[in-house]
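hey all, quick one before standup. I had two proteins in the batch that finished overnight and I want to keep them in one place so we stop losing track of which output belongs to which input. First protein below, input sequence then structure tokens straight from the run.
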Amino acid sequence: MDQHQHDKENQGATLFHSFASSSLPYPGYERETVPLLSYKMDDEKADRIEASEDTAHKISIDPWYQVGFVLTTGVNSAYVLGYSASIMVPLGWIGGTCGLIIAAAISMYANALLARLHEVGSKRHIRYRDLAGHIYGSKMYSLTWALQYVNLFMINTGFIILAGQALKAMYVLFRDDGVLKLPFCISLSGFVCALFAFGIPYLSALRIWLGFSTVFSLIYIMIAFVLSLRNGITTPTKDYAIPGSPSDRIFTTIGSVANLVFAYNTGMLPEIQATIRPPVVKNMEKALWFQFTVGSLPFYAVTFMGYWAYGSSTSSYLLNSVKGPIWIKTVANLAAFLQTVIALHIFASPMYEFLDTKYGSGHSGPFAIHNVMFRVAVRGGYLTVNTLVAAMLPFLGDFMSLTGALSTFPLTFVLANHMYLMVNQHKLPTFQKCWHWLNVVGFSLLSVTAAVAALRLIIVDSSTYHLFADI
């Protein structure tokens, strides 16, 4: 090796080490250097999955603010119209408010840890399963992919149910004759979601649609906020008592904790981070700060206002509780429907990327006829299954609590903290090791507890609901 090549390699190693050694705040410590390269491959990790950037989708092309809007699109999706009922009603003012603040803090911290692991061992990991496989091996690769797939499948199914509820709510405003059933509305919603998916080849292609999504979010959030404020002023007597018997409250409280976690987290941060321009970690942190500050304000506003106005009687879909001009409520429901169509594409993108990369053709443009036909067949089939499950189980909230307990908790908190320990195990001070282990053990126990509470809720509600229910 000549001297020039040797100097060049030393320079590259120095630059990468400088980048990877950037700091991360943690409790009780000032910002300090935490190298991310201390993870060493040994014989026990011989089956680890090597990272691959081979993908049919575009990566490393989006500015940080576009990724920030991707994150806030998920936070301020039509799901926010149910948080007054699913979070505030079971927890009350003190529990709900403190829970939202604490959940935001720990979610920001966990996501920051995960963002710091995007480049490990001189490799970039554009998929969550690739990162887990690189650190733990092939078994954890498969388990992580399974957890993520189930989590995103259930979220997408919930989006289709929400879109169907918005369509039915619009119909009921004009003709409450019971002719148009919820399963039909869900089927129509799934069809529209599929049409949108055919025309958007990859996550970065959303671009202008993220602007539309933001406008739609602000429309239904502002309408719900203003009408709730007006209704709350004219209804001075409100009941904020937490419903249910003492034993029931224990389980509903635990279940609402899973909803707190669900509200802030995507379960696909590495896939979103893959689209961002370098410097990847720094730009991702900007996007995360945007999500957890400005991006969360609309979510807080509508959640607190809905609970203040209607108390314990708040509907699981807030627009069903508000009273106001029919045309205004129609606009709000239409905005919720359209925003849901866009938001679903974000959470379906990891599955689309997998299918497009493994089975699609990357040798021509995304709008070549054979690629379009491939998306019609494959994405259409995937969303057909989503729509069928949504129509069969429109009371999916119970199952989503179980999914959040078994997948959102492990993916967002348990794995993020444990992977950070694995990567930096020889460099972390004792206090920080104890902190991360506390997170791993604590959230593992919380995950199990939330799963038990969700199973109980499913058993209790199974006697009330039936397949293809019109609720």
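OK second protein, same deal, sequence then tokens:
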Amino acid sequence: MDTIKYILSEDQMPLAWYNIQADLPTPMPPVLHPGTKKAIAPHDLEPLFPPELIRQEVSQERWIEIPDEVQSIYRQWRPTPLYRARRLEKALDTPAKIYYKYEGVSPAGSHKPNTAIPQAYYNKQAGVKRLTTETGAGQWGSSLAIAGAFFDLEVVVYMVKVSYQQKPYRRAFMEGYGARVVASPSDETEAGRAILQMHPDSTGSLGIAISEAVEVAAQCDRTKYALGSVLNHVLLHQTVIGLETLAQLEQAGDYPDIIVGCTGGGSNFAGITFPFMGAKLRGEQQLKFVAIEPAACPTLTKGKYTYDFGDIAHLTPLVKMHTLGNSFVPQGFHAGGLRYHGMAPLLSHIVELGLIETRAEPQLGCFAAGLTFARAEGILPAPEANHAVKGAIDEALRCKESGNSKTILFNLCGHGHFDMQAYMDYQAGLLRDTEYSAEEVALALAGLPVM
């Protein structure tokens, strides 16, 4: 019998997160204070984050223990399955072997609870009563809403306005878990009001929503901010994905030649790749990593590697990352979780080290790849995950052309059950490929902070 699923038992779950910073050949550039532009001290982050998350943010330890209470909640859906995509391989007529780790079995339908749960746990331990956050497509907001329900924390979500309008069911999902969802930009914050005064019809961006969430958190001692991607501790928590996959591939007697992932802020890509990348950095394995991003928001392929703010109101620290400029507002394409102007500083640093190939893909090709995958494997991917699917299919077709059999792994980071309007629009021929606006990016980059 040809095995399809590789399943771990609960007692085989990782007991610690993997911190790739311990294996980097050169350390990351320092995070800078937004006012002084000097290296930030851990205590400078205390208005936004609890002590343990700050410690994890700056840690150089290779392994950071997962608390028992977090492991207990993880076991509600973890370990997640690893699939051998045998039907997709047959449909593509490729000699490649394709595996995908499926994170869509979580309560939120994506990988995001892997960090939402520990973030809520550490905030609860620190006496926090309320969390504020931003969300694009809603997967992160959904995950934090669930985590808030588990730990009895109030959650306020600033949802990018175009997604708020496009995805009413995702909004209802968050509200079902007790979160309050606000369309961003809003009139509830100074940052939101400033944007609305200049652009009354603004469709919003993650940079704007972050400004609103950070502003509210900074004004109250019992309120903290939670971020769903970009930061070091968020990428750290996601490594449970890759650590489980290592054990599952050992079951399969296989190891990847190529790992493909989609990139918006970087957490999903980091989660599947970092444990394997650590092995490459230590000289234990050789393999290729490919990051796929949307052509309408091509941070890695078209952005500038420089210091920038993570938000439009300049409330966040300055970090060195690939950026399109913090004031850049991408068009309202359907992969809302990938509409961020910057890339995770840690991932950006690794790209600069030459360890990752980067590609940008228009949305129509990604939707076509997603439907090819769905009709073969039976899982309808989220629009964000379609970018990884497209990259994996492209690699498999290259194997077909060359006659080489390679092992390809990707992370199917979420399902598309809340994205049916996007698929309806695609199949009706209503979607269009949108390129990023070079003029708007140039304008946004012109406003980068002077260092």
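Flagging for whoever picks this up: The chain has two domains: 5-9+70-109+233-445, 113-227. The longest strand covers residues 154-160.
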